[in-house]
Amino acid sequence: MLPVRHEMPAASPLIFDPDKCIACNQCVDICQVDVLIPGPTGNTPPVVLFPGECWYCGCCVVVCPVEGAVTFRHPLMNQVRWINKEELTKSDH
Ligand code: SF4
Ligand code: SF4
What we know:
Elements lengths: L13 E3 L9 H5 L5 E2 L9 E2 L10 H5 L6 E3 L12 H4 L5
Antiparallel strand pairs: 1-4, 2-3
The chain binds iron/sulfur cluster (2 copies).
């Protein structure tokens, strides 16, 4: 039997800190597109059930009463740092 994996999927738009989250589920309730469901035991962070449906609106992060309990992970294509051609040709590179 395969071990059960509890970590977030690589494409998850949110990262929960289980040491900070108080499992109040305010983030679950405010999400307009039902990306999240409550944690399985009632005292664990919510589960990102439909990561592909996230709009990255930020409501879940803003409503959370505990700073750092949930943070954004922006899509990989939005994490790219574009460099101007002029910067690449500077002598300090
Ligand atoms: S960022 Fe918006 S759409 Fe995505 S999970 Fe949070 S509340 Fe839902
Ligand atoms: S709102 Fe914050 S503290 Fe409450 S369940 Fe969501 S991440 Fe955890």
